[in-house]
Design a protein that fits this description.
rod-shaped, 91% helix, mainly alpha, 3 helices, single chain
Length: 122
């Protein structure tokens, strides 16, 4: 009888481990999805910042080549504007990442509850 119970438990564990509809599998999928979104948001923010810096460098280069009386002031203004835009974009990406992290944390408690419920029901 004990061997049969052990076999049933092992079968159940294997089913949970391989069942794509199991709560554990679904939780892991959601965690991976959210992690992917966070990485994507960070990568996108880095690309936007890099593009803004590149544009600022191009504008700076153009301003230097043009020379003239107001070139230095224009350069500073454009660079300051680009820096502000880059800072804003980084902050926005950080906020988005924080929101996604909060969602993960909020869902983790439910995930743990579901897992514990499944484990204790065995």
């Amino acid at each position: 009888m004990d061997d049969r119970v052990l076999e049933d438990i092992k079968l159940h564990q294997e089913t949970i481990a391989s069942d794509s509809n199991s709560p554990l599998h679904q939780i892991r999928e959601k965690e991976l999805e959210i992690s992917g979104r966070v990485l994507s948001a960070k990568r996108q923010a880095d690309e936007i910042v890099a593009a803004a810096r590149k544009k600022a460098a191009e504008v700076l280069s153009a301003a230097e080549s043009e020379g003239g009386v107001g070139a230095e002031e224009t350069e500073k203004a454009i660079k300051a504007e680009a820096d502000l835009e880059a800072t804003r974009l980084v902050q926005e990406a950080a906020r988005e990442a924080a929101v996604l992290k909060e969602q993960v944390e909020a869902r983790r408690a439910d995930a743990v509850r579901i897992v514990l419920s499944e484990v204790t029901s065995i």
